[in-house]
Amino acid sequence: MSYNLENLQILLVEDNLNMRALVRAMLRALGFETVRDCANGQQAIEMLQQFTPDIIVSDWMMEPVDGMDLTKFVRNSEESPDAYIPVILMTGHTERWRILAARDTGVNELLAKPISARTLYDRILAVIEKPRPFVRTKSYFGPCRRRTNWQDYLGPERRQAAQSVEGASVQAQEIDRLLESL
Amino acid sequence: MPRARPPIDNTPPGKPGDCEVIEIPNKLAAKVGPGQGIDRAALERAEAVVEQVKASYDGRLESELEELLDEFETMQAEGRLDLDQLHDRVHEIRGEAGTFGYPLVSEIGRLLCELLAPMDQVGEAEKQAIETHLRAIQTVVTRKVKGTGPDVAKQIVEGLRVMAEKTLA
Description:
The structure holds 2 protein chains of 2 kinds. Chain A is of the alpha/beta class. Chain A has helices at 17-30, 41-47, 67-76, 96-105, 117-129, 165-180; strands at 9-13, 34-38, 55-59, 87-91, 109-112, 134-136, 141-143.
């Protein structure tokens, strides 16, 4: 038996029109009947004064209020309608410090771009099936950060030998040659 | 969004008892009713939607890339490379391109973002590396190389990776 997702309301926050249309269509196809959307965190905060979603799916990088600040609002503001709303943050970032920063802001799940119907569905099922207890410390309020799979989102950290202008030029030519045969 | 790493948080670690654990009732589970795991039919519907939307994406990617290249050209002509702006634009394109069936654009975009993120000054080598990455993205898009591309794509990505590493060292 599958879940009845019709009863869950989603707030989708994404400034990129292509991505917003796609994610909205995917959510509807997965069975969510109420998907309200907006273009940035500021608009989301305004919408949160009117209705309380069951799940927030938000992009990270947006102006003037990004997905991290939206999460901080939900978790910590007195005007938040519910500090425990699960937040799924979509991101293309792979740098370790950014991923850990998202975790430390109170994000429940990260959805790494490029996204697929399967990865979106997996994250939704995670907040339904595996909710984590919340934790309050002097410097943090949000879902328990002790989990093992944050590493899954981390990309490699690399540094090697220095590049000269001549070296860069030779490499650029070699790459151009390869591009010709693409 | 700033590309640079923020200052390290030196908040001292908490002591035992500083942490309150709050068990909350699972409201979502109560609303969705009994069930478990993936609904294959729903997933297939969502995947079909993705394929439909992908079909109309090619033209949009081309125009977004054109805007990016125009911006880069203008920045160069005016002698001011705004690395934050460039990083954010590339980041945006790489995020959606992968989702819409251009993982090669996404991969090259990722390499370019990694190149731009720690960069604080732009000399000739840096400029050349940025231009080469942009040229690679442009080629992939204009030739409509979808999926991971032919074998030569791997060599291109590897070449760009090495170039970025050496530029940043």
